[in-house]
Amino acid sequence: MEIENPWGLVIIFSAFMIQVVAFGYSFAWGIYIVELLSLYQTSAWILALIGSVNIGIFLGAGPLVSLMMRFLSYRKVALIGAALSSLGMLIMPFTPAIELLLLFYGVMAGLGYCMLYIPSHVLSGLYYNKHRSLATGIATAGSGLGSIVYPLLTQYLINVYGWRGSMLILAGINMNTFWLSGLLRPAPVQVRTKGQSEKIHRHRYQPTLRW
C-alpha cells in the first residue's frame, strides 16, 4: 500500500477498531435475550425487536449522518456518535421498563454507532487513491472480527459478572471510541478542497474599488 500520508494507516486502524466495537456489540444482543426474558416478563420477539431496531437504525440512518457530515467535520460527527452510544449503554443496566431499553439501546446506541461507522469508513478511503479498495476492505474487516469476538466475550462476562456487570464493562470498552474518533484527521484532499472553496469565495465576493 502506498504511503502518501502515514496518517492514513492511523485512520484505517481507527476505522477497523470502531467497526469491531460497533458491529460486535450490535450482533451480540441475542445473548442478552435469554437473560432479559425472566427480568422483564415479556416475549422473546419483543426483545429480538429491540436488537432489530438497533441494527436498522445503525445501517439505515446513513443518509441522515451523511447530511450531518456536510455541516460538521467527520471527527465531530464520530465524537457525537461515541457519546450517544456510550451513554445509551451506560443507562441500559438500570432501565426499569422495556420501552426505555428500546429507546437507549435500539435508538440511541443504534444512531450513535451509525455516526461512528459512516465517517470512519468514508475517511479510510479518502486517504488513498491507488489502493482505496484495499484500505476500505481492511477497515471493513473489523465488522467481521467484532461479530466473532463479541458474542464470546459477552457470554464470558455474563457468566462472571452477570448481565448488568457485562453491560457496564462493554460500555467501558465502548468509551474507547472517543479517542478512536479523535484520530479522524481530515484527509489531504478535503483540506485542499476546502482551501480552494474558501479562495473562490473570497475572490467572488471581494469588493471592487471604483475611483
From TrEMBL:
Residues 10-211 form the Major facilitator superfamily (MFS) profile domain. InterPro entries: MFS, MFS_dom, MFS_trans_sf, Proton-linked_MCT. The keyword Membrane applies. Gene3D superfamilies: MFS general substrate transporter like domains. Signal peptide: none annotated. GO terms for cellular component: membrane. It is a multi-pass membrane protein. It is found in: Membrane. This is Major facilitator superfamily (MFS) profile domain-containing protein. It comes from Pinctada imbricata.
